[in-house]
Design goal:
The protein has 1527 residues and is mainly alpha-helical. It has 58 helices and four strands. The strands form two sheets. It has a two-stranded antiparallel ribbon with strand order 1-2. The protein has a two-stranded antiparallel ribbon with strand order 3-4.
């Protein structure tokens, strides 16, 4: 037998890649490249493409030579193949792969696996890839064995010639016959068509005579099959011989296709498709047969001769899966062909063409018949009964596996998964064909007719099982796997559920069985669990009818809902986010398909897509399928849990039936068992609940629903008690989904609803108890925490909040309040029954209920009710008892025991602050009554003890027992008083929340605690301050709390003291405030006289940050009446800039001075929150100027030098960026624009002060930002963040001007327009610093000026867009300012000043789009152009005239990146063709007229050189943060 041309090269390449031969290592790259080209090779498409290209050239040349010709016929060029196609492409990819698959290698007496599995797997993958990606005529490329010209090109030309003749007949009324000697007139067109049909048949016959024998001859093995004894070296089944038998017995089928197809290439497709299906079917059968042989003889020799035999490599399942997919897609291509209407559903080519499932079954039946004949002939040569037994077993096994592999691969290949989150690999087939296949495979029959989908598969597999002898395990395994594959895509009908889950899968779902399980049994059991899980996930509540409809109609590729994926993993329930545009496109496609379907006749669509009338009107098939999925899941659950149905199925179960004993022991708590339970609970429980509420019943009896609901919930409760936290986590989703559906009614009235409420509460307590801190967890407080435990505790808190949340407006009798009431009651009982410390589990749950309790209290304030009163009062009583118990046992119990409970209690106090606020407001607003007084008394009582707990534990328990691990771990919990993920002492957080939640709550806090509150807080603060001084500088663990937590106490004192002063409730408030404020002021005064040192700057920074935590009113008063006390601090900071040096090393005092920058900013920011005073303005102005001047010195010295200040540790990301003091002015503008209670005169006054600050700094700023020193790399360039802060501040000023139009007029004398125009000129001038290169040379790597690739450009673009809206005054002034630095080559005296200014700005924008700015900045240019258009009064002609001028502007001197005489707009406008310019202006005009400004981005990219992907820019950034409280 011969060998395919590519076969030796293919084997050599695979050997280089996969064999561990050192000699092949150097050729692996070449082998990899060959295999890639081999897999994607498509010689026929290349020949057709070259032929069409040559003909197009001939047609074009003829049109040029004979353009006056009056011939109106179709010009098809000359049929001359005079182009070059390399003969290196000769050889059939299909035939080479088939030869590898049919090879039967030596077993070598079972001593090793010599089947080279990598070769078979690669061959199968290649065939599948090609069948999915290219047409049948191209994938079955056997004619390439005769070479490109003699084989492929010859066939292509033959079909092309016939096609051209048809075109002549249909287009001209006359045609030249094939032999070119006979002229056929219009009257003989029909005869000509007949003649062409006969010619097509002759071509097909000749092709078959040539290539069918080649298909067999060139797939032969080099080994002889004459030795049939097992002592020999060959397989019992020669694939090539079997292929020959199959083709010989069924040649008549191919002959029928030749005689019945008159269309040239359609006949070729059907013939090739049939050959492809038969050959792949043979390959599938032989792969399964070889695997059985391999297993049999491997086991035999391992037991008898070589027990140390090497383990074999599994390969058959991968090969069978790939080949099954290839066979399925081939059947699809044969059965369905695209129509002219892309949205119409195609029909089969003829009624005789069987459905897809039957096509696969028939192909395998043909192989089955051929194999039986083949083995009959083989067995006649020997009387070896042992061999006969082996062949019979191998044949039966091969048939079962072949059928199962193909039927399993069919839905995976053809169907689209409804709502699958992971992308589904869709074959390259017309979507209409996929839609037709989807409709067909979803068709379910009735009692009299079997459908064409899963019930037909069930019938086929049942027939196979009935023929199986003593191989029930193998048969069950492959059957279950097959049904699981179908269940991922279609609804499993109830009768199939009964047959599979009820009669087959339940053999493997009895988890109470503990007998010894074989390998086959284990695999089948795993598949059974996955199968029922897939049924449950197919009815997921997150799956919508829209998802099903999209998959049914073939217009979705999986768009993100939960469900089983291709690997059987469970996805999250939340939908994947998709963009609005994608969503609109998807909806548009779906709408077009639906409209097309409605126009077609119902009978042409099949039974599965008809609309039918239900009890409630017109019901669509997608809704019916969704309902069927839920019914099937419910039915499967009844089998799994053994719940008796009214029809008698299943029978009354024993106590250990199915999964009833799940999660009762270690062996019954595996992940596969528990994930099946939770998948069942997620989908079945909500449906049972809805059926119970609607009164509808699938079976006419409702008792089974309660039994099933109870059984599932019992197992879920046991899962919540499982020792494995990964198993417990599986219960989160079903509990939250059940609550969502439970909460859909206004009240709890049904038995099932009460069962659900009780079960949810029990589950919550089980989860909380299971994730409690173990004994001794806090004995070693310096150890790192258990992060997995902390994560689980947070997850449980989320579950508790979710199952008690209020999702509707019903607060009186809703399920949520019933759940909340039950949980609160259970917590209260557990707390009351405890002797010393309350149980940590109860406190954990209680603190997690803050969100629903706060919501309930807010509603109760407006609509009091008895249920809400009970819940709120009991929750307050529980919290009171917890705090009281903790306060009483602190001195008697060690910290390791009190720490976890006290932290949870204080977290609860802080979280309950909104509830306290709502109830105090309600208490104040309501007249006195007994109910009100009782609840109000409980509130006050709880507040008092909570405040005491907070103060005691801030004083006695350090915030950090050991050094923090937040830098290296996610949670810093053990040994701290911090909340989860927080950074502050929870006692301090509780005080802050109770003091700042509302004024009424603050008043109540003062009232309930008494006059000693401020004294106690003051003593606490002094104690914390003293502990902090005793620690070394920078140490925050050990005694006391962190500085931030201490300052929170100071903030509380300041707040409550002011409240007391306003309410005249405290005579000591002023004295306490004065004493507290005088302390940092004294430190500042003392330190101001000391010499510079680390400690001086550190202490001064601490004093400054302490001042910033006083109320803004107090800091404003300080700046108004005692500003001199802050003078040493401001002077120390300003004078520090003079220590700038150009070395990369920063001394430690420099770092502390950098911290002082943040401290001073915090003080000034606190002041500006209330008011900008003159003294504060002077300080800010001095600091801004000092920083700008230092930055100018640094830039002037050169970008290659280092800096002791401008680095991350001093003025940078770790501390505070340059430009921070400018941001204070911007924050003042932001406050002014948002304030509503301040008069306009006051706002104008503050704006005047702020503008004065900026104007005093603008001159220095221009020198700094327009400095041509390149971007620094040896130090941190201060210019980008300074520019960002300046433009952000100016943008906030623009917002004030936009909101209050009179501000601009009032501040004209203060130079507001000059300030805006100067800032605008800086922004545009920065663009002209950048050299964007020219046509001959690229832009330089080192650019002049600061970098524009950062958030400074975002701020620049936003400001420029707003500034341009101020109109002519700003545009003209900005133009003059820019022209002073960039004198224009021509004066343009005929152009108005404002138009010239706008033109310069426009030129800068064009330069920006040409490469001066990063690509992401181009998104903002349409907004700026729109502002210019608005500034021109929306006059399109004037705007286009200005834009035209901007493309012609040139400068007369060199500036930055613009050489003398060059255009400001950049390189792409230097020699732009007039036509291109006209197109650019006309398209821009259209944008202006239509208002579609986002289109301008595309126009600009087209005119300015396209996208700049490889320009070395970063991605779009975020704005810089300027926080300094934790510096």
């Amino acid at each position: 037998m011969e060998t395919p041309l590519l076969h030796p090269k293919l084997k050599t390449a695979l050997s280089c890649l996969f064999d561990n031969n050192s000699q092949n290592q150097q050729h692996r790259h070449e082998a990899h490249e060959f295999l890639l080209s081999f897999k994607s090779c498509n010689v026929r498409r290349l020949v057709v493409s070259r032929l069409q290209s040559q003909r197009d050239k001939l047609n074009k040349q003829q049109d040029l030579d004979d353009h006056d010709s009056s011939d109106e016929g179709i010009n098809v060029g000359e049929p001359v193949l005079d182009f070059f196609v390399s003969e290196d492409l000769a050889g059939s990819v299909y035939l080479s792969c088939l030869a590898l698959l049919l090879e039967h290698d030596s077993f070598n007496n079972g001593t090793h696996d010599n089947h080279r599995p990598h070769e078979k797997i690669f061959a199968a993958q290649t065939l599948n890839h090609r069948c999915r990606s290219i047409k049948i005529n191209e994938s079955f490329d056997i004619e390439a064995e005769d070479g490109v010209e003699c084989g492929v090109a010859r066939l292509v030309l033959a079909w092309d010639e016939i096609r051209r003749e048809k075109l002549r007949i249909e287009g001209n009324g006359a045609a030249i016959h094939v032999d070119r000697d006979i002229i056929v007139s219009g009257a003989n067109d029909a005869n000509a068509i007949v003649a062409l049909g006969e010619r097509s048949k002759s071509i097909l016959k000749a092709w078959m005579e040539r290539y069918i024998p080649m298909l067999v001859n060139r797939c032969g093995s080099s080994l002889s099959n004459s030795d049939v004894h097992r002592g020999g070296t060959t397989s019992l089944c020669n694939g090539t011989e079997l292929l020959a038998v199959v083709l010989e017995k069924h040649t008549s089928i191919l002959q029928e296709f030749v005689t019945s197809h008159n269309q040239e290439e359609k006949g070729e497709e059907r013939v090739k498709g049939t050959l492809e299906m038969l050959s792949i079917a043979v390959a599938i059968y032989t792969a399964a047969f070889y695997e059985f042989e391999e297993n049999y003889f491997h086991d035999f020799h391992q037991q008898s001769q070589n027990p140390q035999q090497k383990t074999r490599t599994p390969w058959a399942n991968a090969v069978l899966s790939e080949l099954g997919s290839a066979l399925s897609i081939t059947a699809l291509r044969i059965r369905y062909h695209p129509t002219s209407n892309a949205y119409a559903t195609p029909s089969p080519p003829s009624p005789s063409c069987p459905p897809l499932v039957d096509m696969l079954v028939q192909a395998l039946d043909l192989v089955k018949v051929g194999a039986q004949s083949y083995f009959e002939q083989k067995l006649k040569q020997t009387n070896n009964r042992h061999m006969q037994s082996i062949i019979e077993s191998a044949h039966l096994n091969a048939l079962q596996k072949s059928f199962a592999a193909c039927l399993k691969a069919l839905p995976e290949t053809v169907l689209l998964p409804p709502g699958l989150e992971e992308g589904h690999r869709i074959p390259s087939v017309d979507r209409a064909c996929l839609r037709a296949a989807s409709i067909e495979l979803r068709n379910v029959g009735d009692l009299s007719n079997v459908g064409t989908g899963i019930d037909r598969v069930c019938e086929v597999l049942s027939g196979l099982s009935s023929n199986a002898d003593n191989s029930i395990q193998v048969d069950d395994l492959i059957s279950i796997e097959c049904f699981e594959s179908w269940a991922r895509f279609v609804t499993v009908p109830i009768h199939v559920v009964e047959m599979t889950v009820g009669r087959m899968a339940m053999n493997y779902l009895h988890i109470s069985r503990h007998h010894e399980m074989s390998i086959h049994y284990q695999k089948a059991r795993k598949s059974a669990f996955q199968y029922v899980t897939t049924i449950f996930e197919g009815a997921s509540p997150s799956l919508t009818s829209g998802d099903i409809l999209a998959a049914l109609l073939g217009v979705a590729a999986g768009r993100g809902v939960s469900g089983g994926n291709s690997k059987g993993k469970k996805n999250p329930s939340n939908k994947k986010k998709i963009g609005n545009r994608s969503k609109k496109r998807h909806e548009a496609r779906l709408g077009r398909v639906l409209s097309t379907q409605d126009e077609e006749h119902k009978e042409s669509m099949g039974d599965n897509f008809n609309r039918f009338e239900g009890d409630s009107g017109s019901v669509e098939i997608e809704a019916a399928e969704l309902l069927a999925r839920k019914n099937s899941a419910c039915y499967a659950a009844s089998f799994v849990f053994g719940i008796s149905m009214p029809d008698g199925q299943p029978s009354t179960p024993e106590d250990d039936w199915g999964l009833r004993l799940a999660a009762t022991s270690d062996t019954t708590s595996s992940h596969e068992i528990c994930s099946t339970i939770t998948a069942c609970a997620t989908s079945v429980l909500p449906y049972l609940l809805s059926m119970e509420r609607d009164g509808n019943d699938l079976l006419g009896n409702h008792n089974w629903r309660i039994d099933l609901f109870t059984s599932i919930m019992n197992v879920v409760q046991r899962i919540c008690q499982c020792p494995d936290r990964n198993i417990r986590a599986l219960a989160y989703e079903p509990l939250m989904i059940l609550h969502k559906h439970l909460n859909a009614v206004v009240s709890v009235s049904l038995i099932m609803e009460n069962i659900a409420v009780d079960a949810i509460c029990n589950c919550v307590f089980s989860l909380a108890k299971s994730c409690g801190y173990p004994d001794g967890y806090f004995n070693l407080l310096s150890d790192n925490n258990d992060e997995e435990l902390e994560i689980e505790r947070n997850d449980v808190r989320d579950v508790v909040r979710s199952i008690s949340s209020f999702e509707n407006e019903n607060f009186e009798h809703s399920p949520s309040i019933m759940i909340l009431k039950s949980i609160i009651h259970a917590c209260n009982m557990a707390i009351c029954e405890s002797n010393n410390l309350p149980p940590e589990t109860a406190v954990h749950i209680l603190s997690a209920l803050a969100k629903p309790l706060n919501t309930l209290a807010a509603h109760y304030k407006q609509h009091p009710s008895s249920n809400a009163n009970t819940v709120l009062k009991q929750s307050l009583q529980s919290l009171y008892k917890v705090c009281e118990r903790i306060n009483s046992v602190y001195d008697t119990l060690p910290v390791s025991q009190t720490l976890p409970v006290s932290r949870l209690a204080l977290m609860g106090v802080a979280s309950f602050a909104p509830m306290f606020s709502s109830l105090t407001e309600w208490s104040i607003s309501q007249p006195g009554n007994s109910e009100k007084s009782h609840l109000a008394e409980t509130v006050e009582q709880t507040l008092r003890v909570a405040l005491q707990s907070s103060i005691i534990y801030v004083a006695k328990i350090p915030e950090l027992m050991a050094e923090s691990t937040l830098d290296s771990t996610r949670y810093d919990i053990k040994g701290t008083m911090r909340g989860p993920g927080g950074e502050d002492h929870v006692g301090c957080i509780a005080l802050i929340r109770l003091s700042f939640e509302s004024d009424n709550l603050a008043y109540t806090v003062i009232k309930v605690y008494g006059e000693t509150l401020l004294d106690d807080l003051f003593q606490l603060y002094e104690r914390l301050k003293e502990s902090e001084r005793e620690r070394p500088i920078g140490c925050v663990h050990g005694k006391g709390v962190t500085p931030m937590s201490r300052r929170l106490v100071l903030n509380v004192i300041s707040r409550l003291a002011l409240i007391g002063i306003e309410g005249n409730q405290s005579t000591k408030s002023r004295a306490i405030l004065n004493e507290l404020m005088q302390s940092p002021l004294n430190d500042i005064a003392t330190l101001g006289e000391a010499s510079n040192s680390d400690e001086k700057f550190f202490r001064m920074c601490e004093a400054a940050i302490d001042l910033s935590f006083f109320s803004p009113e107090l800091i404003v008063d300080l700046f108004l009446n005692n500003a001199d006390s802050l003078g040493p601090m401001i002077n120390c900071l300003v004078s520090g800039y003079s220590d700038l040096s150009f070395t990369s090393d920063s001394e430690s005092y420099c770092i502390q001075w950098g911290r002082l920058r943040g401290g001073v900013m915090a003080v000034l920011r606190t002041c500006v929150k209330n008011r900008m005073t003159d003294c504060a303005a002077e300080a800010i102005s001095a600091l801004i100027n000092a920083e700008y001047e230092a930055a100018i010195k640094q830039c002037t010295h050169g970008h290659q030098h280092g800096s002791n200040f401008f680095n991350d540790h001093v003025i940078g990301e770790i501390t505070l960026h340059a430009g921070a003091y400018t941001m204070i002015v911007g924050e003042c503008f932001s406050r002014i624009s948002s304030q509503t209670s301040v008069s306009l005169e006051s706002k104008i006054h503050e704006c005047r002060i702020c503008i004065g600050i900026l104007r005093r700094s603008s001159t220095i700023l221009i020198q700094l930002l327009l400095n041509e020193s390149p971007e620094a790399h040896s130090h941190l360039d201060p210019r980008p963040t300074i520019a960002e802060s300046w433009f952000l501040t100016m943008n906030n000023l623009m917002n004030v001007c936009k909101k209050y139009e009179s501000v601009v007029a009032s501040l004209l004398d203060d130079g507001i327009l000059d300030l805006v125009s100067d800032s605008l000129s800086i922004a545009i001038s920065l663009l002209f610093l950048k050299d964007i290169g020219d046509r001959k040379s690229p832009p330089p790597i080192i650019q002049k000026g600061m970098s524009l690739d950062g958030p400074q450009t975002l701020a620049l673009m936003d400001f420029a867009s707003e500034a341009a809206l101020l109109g002519a005054p700003v545009l003209s002034s900005a133009g003059r300012s820019i022209s002073s630095n960039l004198p224009l080559l021509h004066t343009h005296s005929d152009v108005p000043v404002e138009a010239l200014g706008a033109a310069i700005i426009s030129a800068g924008l064009l330069r920006a789009a040409s490469g001066a700015l990063p690509p992401w900045a181009v998104e903002g240019t349409p907004v700026l152009f729109r502002s210019l258009y608005t500034a021109f009064g929306k006059n399109c002609d004037d705007f286009i005239r200005m834009l035209n001028i901007s493309t012609e502007l040139r400068i007369s001197v060199h500036f930055g990146g613009v050489a003398s005489g060059q255009k400001l707009a950049g390189r792409y406008f230097e020699k732009m063709h007039a036509t291109t310019m006209e197109s650019f202006l006309s398209k821009t005009r259209e944008v202006c007229l239509k208002g579609e400004w986002m289109r301008l981005k595309v126009i600009l990219k087209s005119a300015c050189g396209g996208k700049k992907k490889l320009a070395g820019f970063n991605l779009k950034p975020q704005y810089t943060t300027w926080e300094c409280e934790r510096i």
